[in-house]
Write a structure and sequence with these properties.
By secondary structure, this protein is mostly helical. Among the domains are: 114 residues, Alpha Horseshoe (Serine Threonine Protein Phosphatase 5, Tetratricopeptide repeat); 79 residues, 5' to 3' exonuclease, C-terminal subdomain (DNA polymerase, domain 1, Orthogonal Bundle), CATH 1.10.150; 70 residues, DNA polymerase, domain 1 (Orthogonal Bundle). 66% of the residues lie in helices and 0% in strands.
């Protein structure tokens, strides 16, 4: 393909009458993938074509509509394609514009019309399978794929779509990975397969593998928005903020109103300008070590030791989350023990009740007062919420492993987490609402 595209005149193909079908469209995407500066050439050609709309023929509208679609101007593409010749290519890309707009029934209809008009049966079937997968009916997508046979089953497009469909069904993730790997073996630069394999790598904690796969996928044109967003998040985790900013900016260049990319870009820019106070960090680390120190490392009377043990107090941090009144209310704990505890804490620069607010916050509801079903929900692992990469990484940083541990946190507390913003907060609130749960304070 590289040899075929070296002498390919992109502007001439877009502007002048001549063959314009799958081979020409594939060459356009290949040329821009190889040299992204050619994207400017495409934009210039399309701008010139738009000035001649009054004298455009139906075939020219198809050419314009396809190019607008490749540029991410989906609404304009839909308008132009509707003025097209109603042929296979026009309907095929109309299906794609409807798919992007989540108009799934219309997309299926256009794929059927495209096939009737002479478009490849295989291409239309793969398109329908993708539509079914995104509208929550992956089993129907699998039926579409099972109808295909022969050489198409060894193509990267087929292997990727089958892998993505198997992944959506969720019964056999290992099979999905194997299919993605076969797709990449057939086409080492297949963007969908690289994206799918990167997602699976992230889910298994192989962030470095995911990073390399995303970097390969992002070179393809047109670039999948999900690839750019996820790659940006990984760059942020590596504190490569400039690279993350470029990813989000590329999304906004194509989709100026993409709210998620806009929020992530704002977060990345803020992080890149953040000054880290190393002295404050060292103090924080020292304090954490002190608070995690076992109380039984200190010389205490037998009475004090037994009282602390009965109250479940094992570290200095636990002790500082209790007030003097709470200790005195414990059986056999008196003023003598209280004075002893005060002196011990004073040596470490701590005091009773110092973190009492945190303790009360963590006891914002009594588990025993909940029904068995409600308790079961709170004990479910956080992965059951199917959170996005960004939100999931925040849960890991905060040490949140169950839904119950999550609802004990306030929105403000979550927003303090690195790389966690308003978009992630909204996502978590929506996920919790399915179980009739809310974050503390909401």
């Amino acid at each position: 393909m590289v040899a075929q595209t070296l002498d390919f005149d992109l502007k001439q193909v877009v502007l002048y009458n001549g063959p314009f079908g799958p081979p020409e469209i594939e060459k356009i995407t290949a040329v821009i993938s190889r040299d992204f500066t050619q994207f400017e050439m495409l934009k210039e050609a399309v701008a010139e074509l738009e000035t001649k709309e009054e004298e455009s023929s139906p075939a020219t509208y198809v050419r314009l509509g396809v190019c607008l679609f490749l540029m991410g101007r989906f609404s304009d593409a839909n308008t132009a394609l509707k003025k097209g010749d109603g042929g296979a290519v026009a309907n095929f890309y109309l299906a794609k514009t409807h798919f992007v707009n989540k108009e799934y029934n219309e997309a299926l209809e256009k794929y059927n019309r495209s096939q009737t008009a002479g478009c490849s049966v295989n291409s239309c079937a793969l398109g329908r399978a993708e539509v079914y997968r995104y509208c929550g009916q992956p089993e129907k997508g699998l039926v579409e794929l099972d109808k295909l046979s022969g050489a198409v089953e060894q193509t990267a497009d087929y292997l990727y779509e089958r892998g993505a469909t198997v992944s959506a069904i969720g019964t056999n993730p290992d099979e999905a990975i194997a299919l993605y790997e076969r797709a990449i073996a057939a086409d080492k630069n297949h963007p969908g397969a690289l994206f799918g394999l990167a997602l699976e790598s992230e889910r298994r904690g192989f962030d470095q593998d995911a990073l390399e796969l995303y970097k390969r996928a992002v070179t393809h044109f047109p670039t999948h928005v999900g690839v750019l967003i996820n790659l940006g998040i990984l760059y942020e985790d590596l504190e490569m903020y400039d690279s993350a900013i470029l990813c989000y900016q590329r999304v906004l260049d194509a989709f100026p109103n993409h709210s998620q990319a806009r929020l992530f870009l704002k977060d990345a820019r803020a992080s890149s300008e953040m000054y880290i106070d190393e002295d404050a960090q060292r103090k924080h680390d020292r304090m954490s070590q002190i608070l995690n120190q076992p109380v039984f490392d200190f010389e205490l009377s037998v009475r004090s030791r037994n009282c602390l043990k009965n109250m479940g107090i094992t570290t200095l941090g636990d002790l500082c989350r209790h007030t003097e009144q709470e200790l005195l209310s414990s059986k056999n704990f008196g003023e003598t023990s209280l004075i002893e505890i005060r002196k011990m804490l004073d040596l470490k620069g701590l005091r009773l009740g110092q973190f009492a607010v945190d303790k009360h916050a963590s006891e914002s509801f009594e588990v025993d007062a909940l029904s068995p079903d409600e308790q079961a929900v709170l004990l479910r692992p956080i992965v059951d919420l199917n959170l996005s990469v960004r939100a999931r990484k925040c849960m890991t940083r905060l040490g949140i492993q169950t839904i119950g541990e999550l609802v004990l946190r306030s929105a403000d507390a979550l927003l303090e987490c690195k790389n966690f913003g308003v978009t992630s907060l909204k996502e978590i609130s929506e996920k919790l609402s399915v179980f009739n749960l809310k974050l503390r304070g909401e």
